Amino acid sequence: MELENQIMQIIVYAGNAKSLAMESIKKARLGEIDAAKNKMDESNKNLKEAHKFHAALLTEFASDEAQKANLFMVHGEDHMMAAITSLDFAKELIFVHEKMGQLENQLQQLQNKEG
Predict the structure, then answer these.
(1) HEC profile for the chain?
(2) pLDDT tens digits for 62-91?
(3) pTM of the predicted model, to two decimals?
(4) Span 3-114: which CATH code?
(5) 51, 54, 75, 79: which one is catalytic?
(6) Is 88 annotated in some ligand binding site?
(7) 75 catalytic, yes or no?
């Protein structure tokens, strides 16, 4: 595959992964934990696709010393790193929102018993 096409695939899949991770955070904030986890599954699938293209690109660069990195490639790398960071934070935020929801439910149950 042509270099520019490989980089575009990284950008597209990584961008999708990041967007889906952000959507998962919004779902978690609304208390829709199962929907948030489903978005994260989709996000992870997109990140895996980005990784496939990234690995192929790295292999190509490793086997051809004449290959030079360019700004477009750096842009693709930036998208990958942003996606990875977004997924990491989304995973933690979903966990926090899930626990908060559980604690709110427990508090409500205690208040109902007292009232």
Answers:
(1) CCHHHHHHHHHHHHHHHHHHHHHHHHHHHCCCHHHHHHHHHHHHHHHHHHHHHHHHHHHHHHHCCCCCCCHHHHHHHHHHHHHHHHHHHHHHHHHHHHHHHHHHHHHHHHHHHHC
(2) 888 777 778 888 999 999 999 999 999 999
(3) 0.89
(4) 1.20.58.80
(5) 75
(6) no
(7) yes
